[in-house]
Amino acid sequence: MAVIADFPEYPSWVSAAKQVDVLETYPDGRASRVRFVLDAGVIKDTYELSYTWSRDGLRVSWELVSGGIQKAQSGSYVLEPQRGGQSAKVTYELMVDLAIPVIGLLKRRAEKVITDTALKELKKRVER
After folding, report:
1. pTM, entire model
2. Where along the sequence do coiled-coil regions lie (predicted)?
3. Could you tell me the CA-to-CA distances from 118 to 10, 24, 56, 90, 114 in Å, in that order?
């Protein structure tokens, strides 16, 4: 979860993240509100997310606060420790609703690419 929670480092390992700023934190120092500047080729957006962290440190979820081309975004990472805590199974869920109309098939393809890319980039960063 340390890699996921380290938002200022996102531009170094998330290819589409050009700038990430923690705007607000909880008393424990974890981010509660974060601004992202995203450039994924044809999709460019600046948006803010509100984060909620589980007490056990194995889940984080988020909701869109404001965005340019996004009407809604919600998602989560859930970590399930494996092999005595030496590794973890990561479940990533994401829902994005754009302010511009997108054909269903194109939207499903984009969701798959986003999800696959996010997990691959996270895995690469953690194993570094």
Report:
1. 0.85
2. none
3. 11, 24, 23, 11, 6
Single-letter residue type at 10: Y
29: tokens are 């120092």
**Long-range contacts from 39-44, C-beta under 8 angstroms, 24+ separation:** 40/15, 40/16, 43/16, 43/69, 44/69
> 14-37, pLDDT tens digit by residue?
988 999 999 999 999 999 999 999
* Rg, C-alpha atoms of the chain: 15
d(CA 53, CA 61): 7
Q: Which two tokens mark 68? A: 């340019």
Q: What is the CATH number of domain 2-126?
A: 3.30.530.20
Share of the chain above pLDDT 90, in %: 53
Instruction: Flag whether pLDDT at 103 surpasses 80.
Output: no
Show the tokens assigned to 67: 């965005």
DSSP 69-119: SEEEEEEEEEEEEEGGGTEEEEEEEEEEEESS---HHHHHHHHHHHHHHHH
Question: What is the rounded distance in angstroms from the CA atom of residue 34 to the CA atom of residue 43?
Answer: 19
Q: Where are the domains of the chain?
A: 2-126
Joined tokens for residue 104: 């269903």
